[in-house]
Specification:
The chain has one domain: Orthogonal Bundle (TerB-like), CATH 1.10.3680. The protein is mainly α and about 130 residues long.
Length: about 130
């Protein structure tokens, strides 16, 4: 739920939630085992969901990857979204020294069409 809250907050950060963002958040929530009503609950009462950082580096990288993917899904990267991703990466426990590099690498590799599993695995190995 915590990750879905982060995704929703990211989608709202530029003041416009577009259909592609809604669809991606819903798909990621369903893949995580959450229901549509779980997502609706987070949307209607985001304060009810406490931030819980992931336990493993892989989960942290996966969550950052999904945040960057959501930031890019509408075809525009807004500065407020980029700042949100980087701030959330800090909350996820990633080092300030590598956040810019990781975010830039994820953007570049998503744009290049590289498989998500390959991106995540490479980042996990280098962390």
């Amino acid at each position: 739920m915590s990750h879905i809250k982060n995704l929703i907050e990211l989608a709202l950060s530029d003041k416009v939630i577009d259909k592609s963002e809604t669809e991606l958040v819903s798909a990621l929530a369903l893949r995580s085992g959450l229901t549509t009503s779980d997502v609706q609950r987070v949307l209607s009462r985001p304060e009810s969901v406490e931030f819980v950082p992931p336990e493993t580096i892989r989960e942290r990288i996966e969550q950052l990857y999904e945040l960057v993917l959501l930031m890019m899904v509408d075809g525009e990267i807004h500065e407020v979204e980029l700042v949100f991703c980087k701030n959330t990466a800090l909350k996820l426990g990633l080092s300030q020294q590598v956040i810019d590099e990781i975010v830039d690498k994820v953007i570049e590799e998503i744009t290049s069409g590289i498989d998500s599993e390959l991106i995540i695995s490479t980042l996990v190995k280098s962390s």
